[in-house]
Batch of 2 targets.
Target 1
Amino acid sequence: LFTDLANPTSNHIYQAIGYRPVCDYTLYRFDPI
């Protein structure tokens, strides 16, 4: 499940029902030249 870290409301709800952070995720995309 991916959440918007800037949205405290949804993050609070997910934590209240038992979801816990597992890791950070970064996506890098390189387009061909």
Note: Residues 1-33 form one domain.
Target 2
Amino acid sequence: MGAGHRSILIAGAGATGLAAAIELARRGFRPRIVDSALGPVPLSQSRALGIARTLTSLSSSRAADAILRSVAGYDRPPPVWIDGAQ
């Protein structure tokens, strides 16, 4: 591996793999993600985007907003309800 060539392989395209790839890219690495799934999971079946911690961990890079817009067609983040109040 030559100087300056900082590639890294990430196994798993779930929330953890995506968060790792984003953070590594911000630090100058070139991540490549592999996953056993044949393609993206439909939003209705995704468990990762329904977990507040996932969206929070991706918010520093603004990836959460981009992901929500691309997979669900949102123009803004969805409303959050806590104890019956928005």
Note: The longest strand covers residues 7-11.
